[in-house]
Design brief:
By secondary structure, this protein is mostly helical. The protein contains nine helices and no strands. The chain has helices spanning 14-45, 50-60, 65-88, 96-134, 137-143, 148-185, 191-201, 204-230, 235-267. It is elongated and about 70 Å long.
Length: 268
Amino acid sequence: MVEAEVVRAPASGEHPARAAGLLAFVDTLGALAYLTRDAVRSFFRRPPPWATIVDQLENVGWRSLSIVSLTALSMGMVLALQLGNFLERFGAKMFVSRIVGVSLVREMAPILTALMLGGRVGAGITAELGTMAVTEQIDAIRALGASPVRVLVVPRMLAIMIMLPLLTIIADLVGILGGLFISTTELRVSSDFYWNSLLYGMMLQDLFSGFGKSLFFAYFIGIIACYNGLHVTGGADGVGRATTSTVVEASITILIADFFLTKLFLLT
């Protein structure tokens, strides 16, 4: 006996739900584009006070230096230890500095620094702006005739786009020094040979690739954090949800963008 094939009909509301989710995603992208446009216009027409920008530079840069340095130092040491022991099987442990340097400069330092700032600075920006939103302080700024974008968004975007590339450079140096420490103490590679091999194998394209990625990552973190903070609703619960969303969305965006940016910089 031949059994009849059963074809499952789409559940009621399944396609409309997908369409609604796609529409919400596109709407969010449009809102981010408008917020970017408003921030750029506000900066060139009437920049915010430099005192406000300096405060944000300290919050984003100086207060993130310790966690970024610790992360880079650990990563440089781990890379040197793992790669050195692996390359020693083939008699090539003397090239560990080249691999560690290129890996840190092109990939690891920009990504890890961006993820650290996305978790610390991005969450902080969203929580700060979200608290102002639910307590109607942003509405008060509008009532006074000031622009929330100029007062709140522009200083934070400038700070993170200035400090993330600088912190990435610091992470490069600290990670390379961590690799040097492991290479000289564990792998018995001389410091002179480590530096000479590193400088011989490093190219300017490697530095530009990591620096360029950090600029894109900084923009993604800043715009996502500011947008989520300005659109918080629902009181304290809403602030918590928005903060979590910022960390998740910024991390996913950084990881996805890294692949396409890598392809782009490899073509240049």
